[in-house]
Amino acid sequence: MIPVSNLDAAMLYAETAEMPMHTLGVLILERTDVAGAGSPFEIVRKLFAERIHLVPPFRRRLVQGPMQIGDPHWIEDPAFDLDQHLVRVVLPSPGGMRELRDFVGAFAGSRLDRNRPLWKAALVEGLDHDRLSLVMKIHHAAMDGGRAAAIAGELLDDAPEGRPTPSPNAPWVPDREPSIPWLAADTIRTLLGKPRRAAEAAGRVASAVRARGTSDPHPSPAIEALEKKPLFDAPPTPFNRALTPTRSVGLADVSFEDVKAIKKAFGTTVNDVVLAACCASLRSWLETHGGLPSRPLVATVPVSVRQEGDRAGNRVSVIRVHLPIHVEDSIGRLLAIHEETERQKNRHRGKGGGDVLKNFADIVTNVTVPWILTHLMSLYSSRHLADRVPPLWNLVISNIAGPAVPLYTTGARLTHLFPLGPVQQGSGLNITVMSVVDRLCFGALACTDLVPNVQDIAAGFVDEIERLRSSIERAKK
User: Fold this and answer.
1) In this structure, what are the phi and psi dihedrals at residue 375, rounded to the nearest 5 degrees?
2) Which of 71, 77, 286, 445 could be bridged to 420 by S-S, CB 3.0 to 4.6 A?
3) Of 172, 108, 106, 112, whose CA–CA distance to 141 is shortest?
4) What is the rounded distance in angstroms from the CA atom of residue 299 to the CA atom of residue 302?
5) At 290, is the secondary structure helix, strand, or coil?
6) What is the dihedral angle through the alpha carbons of 148, 149, 155, 161, rounded to the nearest 10 degrees?
7) What is the average pLDDT across 463-470?
8) pLDDT confidence of residue 161
């Protein structure tokens, strides 16, 4: 058995019916001339069966002690059944992207069964132009978005003719279900160690705070003003309210070469271009749905802290970026965002920022027990308390590096991989982008009741990339 880390466990405790805590990936597969043996679903099932050992979390499920007092563990599921995780879906006519988005939104709205490994995949047939889609849903406790993105490279091949499947290092051996006495003893050991672990985490947080306070004794006026911003400086918007269970998605893609050309022309980063395009799209959507708020939007931007070769759960920290939605000029928005992200990244590096989420999770999970945390989240959700509390942030915007080379499975080539991250109470919109060879794929997951017409946000992202690209062309003339 493997103990669930505190950060991963926090993803479990936070989950409610209104807030499923899973990520999704929508893979679009274009059929090639390479013929496979059997139906598309049979081919995909065979692929998972042959390569599931390359993704260990796919055969692990949760166990927890009596009354949810002890911490959870992963076990190699003795009742694992691949057919409980793979389903076949046929889109209704005409089988376009609208129908696919409708299916993905419904698929995203249901929670994963904790009595089984925390993932599910749907092979979607009936997509126009003889395409297929593989929609994968993976709980955030099992892996973060960056790790989930790497799965495509493990399940698919870098050549149309395929490659030999690497053999497992050893035969897979399922675990025995732990006994009640063992779980009770483990719970006692866990409870006895909580005060020490909480004190250690609090010490790490205090050290990080002191490091930040002494890192720059003479900050510039701009940095000083940023440091003095209140914690609750995110303005209210239509999507910063209590969640309902309904979900919808927006999907779009742009040329990755265009994004890199914009980055180069203005001396920014790809992530700055992504944030600027999101900012412009949100500005347009808000003008249509209630008007612009009085302050800049606050975006939480995940930052990977995963070390090379690290394949475990979540390895992520965050920075907060203020999006200047009141700036009308596209280039002005991009340059303002670049200035702030550089400042925020400099503050984040080497000052304990990389462990901020881990340390926070360590404190919270060690000063209480899972039963209390899950019931507090259930109460917060069911009483719609997010409607009464100012938001800490407006939305999450993530940028994930995807496969840099073309990928294939038997008879099909991966053309797009749209990522979707979970929404949180008080923040009903999550935007994630991923580079896939020559495309940058945009995915927005939203609470439908808070964000109507979420596809408009995806379309606005595409429009802003085109405006920035056109500005480069005009400058050359």
Assistant:
1) -75, -35
2) 445
3) 112
4) 10
5) coil
6) 180
7) 97
8) 80
- Do residues 119 and 57 make contact, with C-beta atoms less than 8 angstroms apart? yes
Give how far Cα 156 sits from Cα of 164, 175, 272, 351, 413, Å: 11, 28, 30, 38, 9
Q: Among residues 4, 11, 13, which one has the least CA distance to residue 369?
A: 13
CA distance 206 to 73: 29
- Tell me what pLDDT residue 378 has: 95
pLDDT digits 0-9 by tens, 40-86: 999 999 999 999 999 999 999 999 988 888 899 999 999 999 999 99
Could you count the other beta carbons within 10 Å of the beta carbon of residue 188? 13
- State the Cα torsion 17-23-29-34 to the nearest 10°: -110
Name, in order, each residue with C-beta under 8 angstroms of 351's C-beta and a sequence gap of 6 or more: 208, 211, 212, 215
Cβ contacts of 384 within 8 Å, gap of 6 or more: 242
CA atoms within 13 A on the CB side of 235: 16
CA distance 396 to 320: 9
Amino acid at site 384? H
Q: Give the CA radius of gyration of the chain.
A: 23
What is the value of pTM for the model shown?
Answer: 0.91
Give dist(CA 216, CA 119) in Å, integer: 45
For residue 155, the Cα-to-chain-centroid distance in whole angstroms is 20
Taking Cα atoms as reference points, which of 460, 339, 325 lies closest to residue 468? 460
Torsion angle of alpha carbons 274, 278, 280, 283, nearest 10°? -160
Q: Which residue ranges form the domains of the chain, and what is each CATH number?
A: 2-163 (3.30.559.10), 191-399+423-476 (3.30.559.30)
CA distance 418 to 25: 6
Amino acid found at 303:
V
User: How many degrees, rounded to 5, is the angle at CA 317 between CA 313 and CA 321?
Assistant: 140
Q: Which residue in 162, 163, 165, 136 sits closest to 148, CA to CA?
A: 136
Give residue 151's pLDDT band: very low, low, confident or very high (50, 70, 90): confident
Contact present, 298 and 312 (Cβ < 8 Å)? no
Reading phi first (left if > 0) and then psi (alpha if -120 to 50, else beta), residue 453 is in: left
Q: d(Cα 49, Cα 69) in Å, to the nearest integer? A: 35
Cis bond upstream, residue 78 (ω within 30): no
Distance CA 386, CA 189 (A): 35
Give the mean pLDDT of 263-270.
96
